[in-house]
Design brief:
Blueprint lengths: L24 E5 L2 E4 L3 E2 L10 E2 L6 H9 L4 H7 L5 H14 L12
Antiparallel strand pairs: 1-2, 3-4
Helix pairs in contact: 1-3
């Protein structure tokens, strides 16, 4: 088994977390639907943060590992309960959660 890479504590003190609903389908474009069937949110686990299949492995953890340069194979080696599809869906979920649109309102006449 490979040695674990160092992780820093996240979130920092005072960080405000924005919730994003799990177990939903999101339109990725014309006719494309992403169904997050591997992402769960349970209020009594992990403070309600999105996790992979209720495993107590958060989407945030997976995203941070990938961002830190870990390969899928390294993650799967250190987290044997995860599957390759779990990692892919965690990344898709994170991307969808940042898909926020702002609309400028017209000035009153």
């Amino acid at each position: 088994m490979m040695a674990s890479k160092t992780q820093t504590h996240w979130p920092p003190a005072g960080y405000l977390r924005r919730s994003f609903p799990a177990n939903l389908a999101v339109s990725a474009g014309e006719g494309d639907i992403i169904d997050f069937d591997r992402i769960t949110v349970e209020p009594d686990k992990l403070e309600g943060r999105p996790a992979v299949r209720g495993l107590r492995i958060t989407v945030e953890t997976v995203v941070r590992l990938v961002a830190g340069g870990w390969t899928f194979d390294e993650i799967l080696s250190d987290y044997p309960d995860l599957e390759r599809e779990d990692i892919k869906q965690a990344l898709e979920y994170a991307a969808a959660s940042t898909n926020v649109h702002f609309y400028r309102l017209r000035e009153p006449a």
